[in-house]
Amino acid sequence: MLVVPLQHDNHTIGVLKVLSKQTESFAEVDEVMLTMLSKVVASSMFYSTHYNFEELFYRATHDQMTGLANRALFLDHLRSVIAQARRHQTLAGLLMIDMNGLKQINDRFGHRSGDAAIREFAQRLKHHSRASDTVARFGGDEFGIILTPVSESGHVSLKARRLESQVEKPFKVDDSIVKLSGSIGAAVYPYDGAQIEILLDKADQAMYARKREHKSKR
User: Fold this and answer.
1) Both 43 and 140 in a single domain?
2) Given this model, what pLDDT does residue 2 score?
3) How far apart are CA 3 and CA 191, in angstroms?
4) Reduced to 3 states, what is the DSSP secondary structure of residue 14?
5) How far apart are CA 187 and CA 85, in angstroms?
6) At the N or C end, where does the chain have fewer CB atoms within 10 A?
7) 63 in a structural domain
8) Is 34 in the same domain as 81?
9) Calpha distance 121→104 (Å, rounded)
10) Domain, as residue range, for 178
11) 77 and 43 both lie in a single domain
12) Contact 118, 52 (CB under 8 A)
């Protein structure tokens, strides 16, 4: 028999037992694997008893640092928006956003200041977006926005350029002022593609092209 404590955040909340009909049937590798499994089980038990369903759903679908939608929720919304646009023969917009200069902020001021800059950048994106849009953080310095409704395809590119100017403002980190900015690429359904993967790729390509433009102007 193997017995491993169920521990979460230095608190023991139970034990995990594995039985075998044969004696001395467990090897050291089995104990290692059981220990790893016990951490997953303990974490699940802890959160299931401390949070209700709505809280657990929120934690699973939102970025913990910024409160924005995460990649999974973003893609789920994008599928729904594209399906609705296809059904009603309307337009939908997609923006892929890369926060500029995060590495330099982390290197100069530390990751705590970098995290503060990410949160500020996220709030600016959210503040300058409509309630009907979906603003998400994919992780690191990558963000995305689903624009819906869209009346004209040209409005998506205009939104991208306007949003770049709206987020490009100084931000105070401790006693220093750093510049926050972003590179934004746009794609429009159905003109840039009818499939999600194609639209994401188009917006990504446009974003990287925009990032190269910014670097060439320095």
Assistant:
1) no
2) 65
3) 59
4) strand
5) 14
6) C
7) no
8) no
9) 15
10) 71-216
11) no
12) no
Look up residue 192 and give its DSSP letter.
T
Would you list the DSSP string of 53-77?
A: HHHHHHHHHB-TTT-SB-HHHHHHH
Would you state the structure tokens that stand for residue 24, as one six-digit string? 């001395």
What are phi and psi for residue 145, nearest 5 degrees? -135, 130
**Entry pTM:** 0.76
- Tens-place pLDDT, residues 58-113: 888 999 999 999 999 999 999 999 999 999 999 999 999 999 999 999 998 889 99
Instruction: Look at the chain and report how many structural domains it folds into.
Output: 2
DSSP letter for 62, please: B
Does a structural domain hold residue 64?
Answer: no
Q: Which residues are catalytic?
A: 141
Place of tokens 């979906």: 134
Summary count for the chain: helices (H), strands (E): 7, 8
Q: Are residues 171 and 91 in the same domain?
A: yes
pLDDT at 11: 66
User: Of 79, 50, 78, nearest to 146 (Cα)?
Assistant: 78
Residue count of the chain:
218
Cross-strand pairs, 145:
95, 135
Residue 123 domain flag = yes
CATH number for the domain including 165?
3.30.70.270
Give the pLDDT of residue 17.
Answer: 75
The whole-number pLDDT of residue 96 equals: 98
- Regions of the chain with pLDDT less than 50: none
